[in-house]
Amino acid sequence: MAATEADAGSTPDEPVDASQQPAKKTSRAGRDLPAAIAVGASIGAVLIATLLWVPHFWVLYSALAALVASHEVVRRLREAGYLIPVIPLLVGGQVTVWLTWPYRAVGAIAGFGGMVVICMIWRLFMTDKRSPDSHGADGAPPPSNYLRDVSATVFLCAWVPLFASFAAMLVYDPQHGPGWVFCMMIAVVCSDTGGYAVGALIGKHPMVPRISPKKSWEGFAGSLICGITATVLTATFLAGKEWWVGALLGLLFVLTTTLGDLIESQVKRDLGIKDMGRLLPGHGGLMDRLDGILPSAVAAWTVLTLLP
Length: 308
Description:
Elements: H1 2-9, H2 33-53, H3 57-79, H4 86-98, H5 100-124, H6 146-169, H7 177-202, E1 206-208, E2 212-216, H8 217-237, H9 243-271, H10 287-290, H11 293-306
Antiparallel strand pairs: 1-2
Helix pairs in contact: 3-4, 3-6, 4-5, 4-6, 5-6, 6-11, 7-8, 7-9, 7-11, 8-9, 9-11
């Protein structure tokens, strides 16, 4: 009876106004900002520890990243109707990265060439089971889309596994291997952060609105300032290079990170998707984080290897 009276004297719960609930913080791109920061910090901590104590594990990370990112892109391409030779591409990508350990750049080139040839042959014998095997009104066989599929496959072979092999080769330098990796990673992060911060604060003039409406010229200027400054410092103190090499490399990093992001944005627009995957909370897929790092690895290895 007491319980009944207590219930009778209690007031019913008031409906909760959703507008009064704390909103989840999101970035300008509509991502979960706290999750993105947590994931980025965790990955950064693991990479720093690896490069300090077991630097050659960087090759393993490069190979795994190439495998996961390639699979993400292949899945998206197949969803869009492309026939991609999955097995030779994924296996060949691993061979391409790991051949850099004993053979360096020669191994990367040989692995890439072999992967492309096998993928081209493999695609010859693939059939699309999702479309009916019917002939046209004139009796001609349906189009095979071989050229389209092979072009996309070769693009993917270069975009992910070949570029990842350049990232792996950074750590092989006998004197400054980990420093070369730190130089690239710190510069890319500073370039991205500077571009995002300046663009969010004062960005008003879009760079390429057709591809990436939120990327602004003001943000690009922020990337230039932060990216070049970070690269000059890291190239001088971590990579053992002259300051002018750092300045040149910093400029290249800003270009490769910006253009790499635009390239992936265009690919995603062509495929009608927002992200390549959902592996990393707040970021999307792994490929969505590697779009600027992969081409930057090519620039880093080339400049740091060829210039004093």
